[in-house]
């Protein structure tokens, strides 16, 4: 499919919309950004956004022309590589069974396992008012973050430039956003404890697309 000139991303730094901007930059696609404020509980009072883009008022919101709206960041990532990466620069082809399996595994692991634990820990240590935080639950989810990071640390051994056979893919973009939050907000990613993650993280951060996505 030819690149669309109608792609729009509803974006705030530190949210999952950063993943989408990162990938769009890597793909070299034209796109528009509608900047939104970062609010911990979403944009529920933004009636137009809730009604037309994301019914929960969360980010990202993504549209490709008048007929396509996607509200899950990993779904946006997969849509973009399927539609606009015919040379498979950022995702293995379906015919490469082993690489494709690894790619899909890490794409989903980043969100379903690691990001879930990171997000819940943030909620009960940083976001919620003190009286609404559950310290016991936060400690349990911190264990989940540690377990997820340990899995990632082992998988990244010898793979500084990418989780799938050492090659950079969209899975790295999804993982990077979650590790970014675990590092920047929770301070749980030390080079001493996670040297493989730290080396990979530093390399991904050098990419111009990362700077664009995370410094806006």
From TrEMBL:
GO MF entry, a single one: glutathione transferase activity
Pfam family for this entry, one: GST_C_2
One CC-aspect GO term: cytoplasm
Limits of the GST N-terminal domain: 4-88
Domain GST C-terminal: 96-216
Source organism superkingdom: Eukaryota
Stated family: Belongs to the GST superfamily.
Name used for this protein in its record: Glutathione S-transferase
Species of origin: Klebsormidium nitens
């Amino acid at each position: 499919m030819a690149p669309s000139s109608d792609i729009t991303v509803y974006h705030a730094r530190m949210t999952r919309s950063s993943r989408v901007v990162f990938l769009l930059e890597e793909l070299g696609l034209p796109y528009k950004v509608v900047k939104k404020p970062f609010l911990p509980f979403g944009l529920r009072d933004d009636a137009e956004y809730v009604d037309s883009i994301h019914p929960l008022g969360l980010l990202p919101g993504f549209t490709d022309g008048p007929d396509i709206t996607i509200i899950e960041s990993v779904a946006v990532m997969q849509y973009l590589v399927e539609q606009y990466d015919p040379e498979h620069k950022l995702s293995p082809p379906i015919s490469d069974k082993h690489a494709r399996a690894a790619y899909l595994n890490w794409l989903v692991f980043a969100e379903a396992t690691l990001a879930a634990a990171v997000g819940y820990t943030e909620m009960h240590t940083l976001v919620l008012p003190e009286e609404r935080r559950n310290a016991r639950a936060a400690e349990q989810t911190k264990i989940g973050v540690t377990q997820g990071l340990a899995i990632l640390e082992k998988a990244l051994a010898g793979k500084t430039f990418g989780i799938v056979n050492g090659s950079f893919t969209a899975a790295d973009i999804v993982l990077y956003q979650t590790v970014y939050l675990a590092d920047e907000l929770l301070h749980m990613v030390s080079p001493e404890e996670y040297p493989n993650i730290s080396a990979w993280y530093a390399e991904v951060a050098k990419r111009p697309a990362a700077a664009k996505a995370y410094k806006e």
